[in-house]
Request: fold
Amino acid sequence: MKLIPLPAFDDNYIWMLHDGHRALVVDPGDAQPVLAALQSEGVQLQGILVTHHHPDHTGGVDVLRDATSASVFGPANERMPEPLRRLHGGGTVQLLGLDFKVLDVPGHTAGHIAYFAEVNGEAPVLFCGDTLFSGGCGRLFEGTPQQMLASLGQLAKLPGATRVCCAHEYTLSNLKFAVEVEPDNPQLVAYQAQCQALRGQSLPTLPSTIETERQINPFLRSERPTIIASARRFDAPGVASHGAFAMLRQWKNQYR
Ligand code: ZN
Ligand code: FE
Reply:
């Protein structure tokens, strides 16, 4: 299986997975990079997976549905380009001979879902949209900190080797904040250097892995004493009572 992040807009990735014949793409905000990749890779689009309703994730769906025979899958409870098959957490989708498990991960949007699959002889894959980013997490447009914390907790329990396919290249700005929160985390400092080198060559920092994110992502580590202490340094009025995760998210919103 080949896993390819197709750059779109300023910092989106449309993920493509293919077996040399059939392909799926995730969150095609723009059809053009997908059509170009289908041609250059010589593969047919079998399925389109959508994680949430934002236009930078759905904008290319209609064009791709018309141009190919792909089936479209998306969240049960969000406004989506019809027709599509709507999925609930706990459901599954079969594509490319893989069983994708659907996870409910509300927070960024109210009905956000993620897709997880074991891949024979390779590391599993997770398509998590705008929920988990490398070194960070999505903004809370429609959900509460408690919902996002639970959603991220669910993702953090996946196998450590899982390839984390996020929908944006936000890694360096996330890591700048992460180092501010946790300056004494050696794995974080080393990971930052590694990602800076990749971006220096215009290469993607993704996919990350669940194991890496558990080690370096402050939003998966908000229950740790050092992170709680750090979050308290940033005391937004009224946020502290909602816990360290809420403080961290609020801090990051204002961080430059
Ligand atoms: Zn979004
Ligand atoms: Fe997005």
The chain has a mean pLDDT of 96. The chain has nine helices and 14 strands. The longest helix spans residues 186-200.
